[in-house]
Every structure is written in C-alpha cells, then in structure tokens.
Amino acid sequence: MDHIVTVQEAVTAFADFKEPTDAELDAIEREMPVILAGVELLDAQIIALNHTPNELDARRIRRARRRVLTARRELANQAADAHRDGAA
C-alpha cells in the first residue's frame, strides 16, 4: 500500500509571493479613480439594460464615460509628470 503524503513545503514555499507588493498597492491606489469611474460607467450601462433606455440613461452613460476619460487623462498626466521629474 502506498502512503499519500502532503507536499506542504512545496505548497507554502511561494506563500510570500501571494501578497501584493508595496509598489503594486501604490499602483492600485493611483489607478483607483479610473477603476471607480469604470465601475460607475458599468453601473449606468447595466441600469440601461434593465429597460428601454431613455434620455436620462443616455445622459448618465455620457457623464460616466466623461468621468472615465477624465480619470484616464489625469492618470496619464501624472505618469508623464513623474516620468519627466524622474528624467530630470
């Protein structure tokens, strides 16, 4: 009869790598306005799917799209500024 043994060392050997690094958490924090704007856009689109879209739905989606674009632009500008400051 063969005994079944666990390979605990092999499974837990990479446990330290499962958590996000500080740099990854900082990147998520910087991107949070874009993420939240995207969620708002998705919510507006889902609301419009539940019934025949009307003018209010169209306005809500347009506003949400503008917020996504604004958040992306601000993130890109921050990255460009950081790159420029780092290059100087």
How is this fold's topology laid out?
Blueprint: H1 8-12, H2 22-49, H3 55-87
Helix pairs in contact: 2-3
Write structural notes for this entry.
- The protein has 88 residues and is mainly α.
- Helix content is 75%, strand content 0%.
- The protein contains three helices and no strands.
- It is flat and about 70 Å long.
- The N and C termini lie far apart (69 Å).
Give start-end ranges of low-pLDDT stretches: none
The chain-level mean pLDDT equals 87
Q: What proportion of the residues form beta strands (DSSP E)? A: under 5%
What general form does the structure show?
flat
The arrangement of helices and strands along the chain is HHH
- Total count of strands: 0
Please state the CA-atom Rg, rounded to the nearest Å.
22 Å
Count helical runs.
3
Provide the helix percentage: over 70%
Largest sheet: none
Please describe the structure with a list of short key phrases separated by commas or semicolons.
3 helices; flat; 75% helix; single chain; mainly alpha; 88 residues
Provide a brief overview of the structure:
The protein has 88 residues and is mainly alpha-helical. It has 3 helices and no strands.
